[in-house]
Amino acid sequence: MRTILFSSQNYDRESFLGAQLPAGIELQFQAARLSLDTAALAERHEVVCAFINDDLSAPVLEQLAAGGTRLIALRSAGYNHVDLSAAQRLGLDVVRVPAYSPHAVAEHAVALILALNRRLHRAYNRTREGDFTLHGLTGFDLVGKTVGIVGTGQIGATFARIMAGFGCQLLAYDPFPNPAVEALGARYLDLPELLAQSQIISLHCPLTEDSRYLINQQSLAHMQPGAMLINTGRGGLVDTPALIEALKSGQLGYLGLDVYEEEAQLFFEDRSDLPLQDDVLARLLTFPNVIVTAHQAFLTREALAAIAETTLHNIASWAAGQPQNRVHG
Ligand code: NAI
To answer: What residue stretches are annotated with the D-isomer specific 2-hydroxyacid dehydrogenase catalytic domain (predicted)?
Structure first.
């Protein structure tokens, strides 16, 4: 089973080579991102293993199918970047890793909250410059604060447990309430109510047509002035120019992003020698109360090992005619 892993980094190579390789699977690591320009590299590979910023739109899938590919094995949980109806039309199966470590992502969301609140990014730079002053570094106690969780599946529920441990009040919004989150004392509300009552809002829902730009100019106006917004879900959940306006007016007090709508052209690459062409991201990065990480919430040893193991298992079971973790259009 010839398998090409697009967008593979050194840490992918280590985790896949460290996992038990099922018989008959041959791995080729490819640093390039999958796109129309690079799809030819997959020729004669039955399996294309892709990550979140690979292009799996209809034209790319058509080229992959024409080159002999039959399975798209996603190394991610999210599959919003795959044109599933095109895959179905072309006879391409799609499998994913439904859960690898909800802790990795939930803990990163908490890391962003703590860093923004206690302004660790500013303190770190200050002390390194020999500036030991404290002005501008005042934070707030998390205990007793109200945290709104949008999407209470595996990651949202894990995040809820951690925030309950801090002594926060929990509010939640999800079309399918999770009894385990209710058991923590969380109250399910509609989205405008959640936004109006929360001091911290964290997004943990998938990107779908319903959730695109869930946070926009209107929903930002529902929030408490100075609220904190954390997005480790998908970039398209928020209208980024609207966030910039809310930061400028002070309506949004803190912003932690691990995902960005236009990240595909930027994230996972060292572009430090190049002028940043994305003016929206450039503006975001000027705010002292904004932290952007480059889609690293998943990046723990445990999550990488689980991604490799499940992906190899997905490929082997598909090859044995018993596909698992299939994504349906
Ligand atoms: P999950 O499927 O366990 O939970 C998602 C929850 O969101 C479900 O309870 C669902 O009912 C709810 N939901 C769906 N549409 C909604 C909407 N419009 N509003 C509110 N809730 C809605 O998924 P899981 O594993 O918790 O992952 C959540 C998302 O986190 C993924 O879809 C992915 O986009 C993102 N993610 C980000 C990572 C990162 O490294 N930054 C890594 C892994 C996942």
So the answer is: 10-327
Residues 6+ apart with CB under 8 A from 205: 150, 151, 153, 156, 174, 211, 214, 233, 237
Ligand 1: atom nearest CA of 205 is 7
- Length of the chain in terms of residues written: 329
Q: Whose CA is nearest to atom 4 of ligand 1?
A: 153
Residue type (1 letter), 137? L
* Predicted TM-score (pTM) of this structure: 0.95
Successive 10-residue mean pLDDT values, the chain, 329 residues: 97 96 95 97 98 97 98 95 97 96 97 98 98 98 98 98 98 98 98 98 96 98 98 98 98 98 92 96 98 97 97 97 92
Q: How far is CA 29 from CA 8, 231, 257, in A?
A: 6, 30, 29
Residue nearest to atom 18 of ligand 1 (CA): 211
Report d(CA 329, CA 326) in Å as an integer.
10
Query: How many Å lie between the centroid of ligand 1 and the Cα of residue 78?
Result: 8
In the residue annotation, 263 being an active-site residue is answered as: yes
Return the structure tokens found at 10: 């050194």
Same fold, 1-98+299-318 and 101-290: yes
Domain-by-domain residue ranges, the chain?
Answer: 1-98+299-318, 101-290
The residue whose C-alpha atom lies closest to atom 16 belonging to ligand 1 is 205
Nearest-angstrom CA–CA distance, 29 and 9: 8
Q: Which CATH architecture has domain 101-290?
A: 3-Layer(aba) Sandwich (3.40)
* Spatial strand order in the sheet of 47-50: 26-29, 2-5, 47-50, 71-74, 93-95
DSSP 8-class letter at 266: T
**Token pair 């932290």 is at which residue?**
291
CATH superfamily, region 1-98+299-318? NAD(P)-binding Rossmann-like Domain (3.40.50.720)
- Whether 283 is a known active-site residue: answer no
Active site residue 222: no
